[in-house]
């Protein structure tokens, strides 16, 4: 019946082929989720199968809405970027205000944790490095570098005060997450748009030289500030301190245990909600692991992961004749790499990132502009 409706809509030109293909993929993905959930509940008795299923559904819902709204010409990519950067600015401003409120002693970081967990339902990572310096990391931080990337790629006025202010504000919000992958993603998502402008614009070289000079001055200030004993200790702790060593060791342990569990059911895995009962990352979200891709291999097996990778890679649509397509593909790969460091790929925030990349590739295919780049 659904096929008949789609054929009818195509015949009267009410819906285009791209939306039909996406609908078919969506149905296939839903079937995949159902099969993985059945495997988790019926064959493996996982108590958290439906909780993890809800994570996938929330991510897929955001992707579906973004793509359909774009296809129905209700929202263009540039409009999506403008909405996203406004949201990122508001979120970053609140986060920076909270950071400095704690730093100057106006509020206690324990009160912030209580509000986030009990009132907002968030699961923050907040570490006290002493002297008022607090690590504030939330799952939503994962989207900030990529919103910044889409805002900057092809931007005509990279030297404007507004653009620099946005970079500094959002960049600071990323920095105080004290997450090394977020630091890397943030730098990547600022540097690559500068390179793109340098290559594609006649005045790009001049812009890039100016931006590099500004970056050198900024790094010089950071270096000067880092000579401060407090800041130096914090940076040292996050890069090579005891906490970081423990964090890295936990990831190594996860890889060992996940591989061991995978070997027991390599083809179909433990199903949705699967977890290692003797080695859980979190009792609140026992099915989530920092090494998320290996976690999915343990849960969905070789066959399930083959299907999952097809869905993930189907987002990419590279046109090598258009450099912006290549740059966006590189950013997408960097986003997928996050699945080796943080369990944030599948969430509403993760769905927003996937959706933005999907709409971006579709916009390039349809020759729509992205941030002033053709």
UniProtKB/TrEMBL annotation:
Keywords assigned: Membrane, Transmembrane, Transmembrane helix
Name by which UniProt lists this protein: O-antigen polymerase
Sequence intervals crossing the membrane: 17-36, 56-73, 85-107, 132-153, 160-176, 182-200, 207-226, 293-316, 323-341, 347-364
Coiled-coil blocks: none
Domain of life: Bacteria
